């Protein structure tokens, strides 16, 4: 069992695989830095200039650093 917490993501670099519930999603493959983690939203400052949250356990992403 891992001691991982979603709160450990703050400051990490992520790469979006797919965003499901946003009418204007970030493009798959876009990278960004996690700015904040709430109850179920991971707010990311995307390299394309947008700041948009991912929904934990809905949107797909990978941690790249």
Q: Tell me the strand percentage band.
A: 35-45%
Morphology call: globular
Tell me the span between the first and last alpha carbons.
21 Å
Strand order of the largest sheet: 4-3-2-1-5
Uncertain runs with pLDDT below 50, 5 residues or more?
none
Largest sheet: 5 strands, antiparallel
Radius of gyration: 11 Å
Percentage of helical residues?
Answer: under 10%
Mean pLDDT: 93
Number of strands: 5
Please identify the structural class as seen in this structure. Answer: mainly beta
User: Which series of helices and strands comes N to C?
Assistant: EEEEE
Number of helical regions: 0
Textual characterization of the structure:
This protein has 65 residues and is mainly beta. The protein has no helices and five strands. The model has no long low-confidence stretch (mean pLDDT 93).
